[in-house]
Amino acid sequence: FVPQLAVSVALLLAFCCAERTAPVYSAASVVHAATGLPLLAPDTFASIYGQGLAFTTRQLRPADLDSGLLPLHLPGSGVRVYVGGISAPVWFVSPTQINFLVPPSLPTPSE
After folding, report:
1. Helix, strand, coil % (nearest 5) of the chain?
2. Are 99 and 91 in contact (CB under 8 A)?
3. Burial grade of 96 (CB within 10 A; 0-12, 13-18, 19 or more)
4. What is the pLDDT of residues 86-108, one digit of tens each?
5. HSE, side-chain direction, 13 A CA sphere, residue 104
6. pTM of this prediction?
C-alpha cells in the first residue's frame, strides 16, 4: 500500500446549466474501499468521501462496460477521477461518495 497516492487524487466535475459549488474532500477521505484506510495501491478499489462529489447518484450498469472493462466515467454523471494524473475507472458516484479503481499502470513511489 502506498499512502502517498492519496494526496494525488483529483476530481473533475463537468459543470453545466446552473451554478455549482466545487467538490469538498480531503486526502484523508480518499481510502481503500475494503479497509477504510487512506492507503492506496495500484489495481485496488478505493472510495472518496465528501460533499458535492457528483450531481446525481449513478452506479455501473452492464451497458457501461466496454469489452469487460470498467468505464473511465459513468455516462450522465459528469464525474472523472484522476490518480497521479491518470484517469481512473469509476463504478459508483453520488454527492457524498465515489468508488473507483486505482489505475493498475500507476507507478509506486519506489519505481
Report:
1. 10, 35, 55
2. yes
3. middle
4. 889 999 999 999 999 999 888 76
5. 3
6. 0.82
What is the residue type of 68?
G
Grid cell digits, residue 106: 500507476
Please give the Cα distance from 99 to 74 (Å, whole number). Answer: 11
Q: Which ranges in 1-111 belong to alpha helices (H)? A: none
Which amino acid, one-letter code, is at 99? N
Model confidence pLDDT, tens digit, residues 15-69: 444 556 778 888 889 999 999 998 888 999 999 999 988 888 999 999 999 898 8
- d(C-alpha 29, C-alpha 5), whole Å: 12
CA distance 46 to 106: 14
| CA distances from residue 79 to 22, 72, 88 in whole angstroms, order as listed | 12, 9, 11
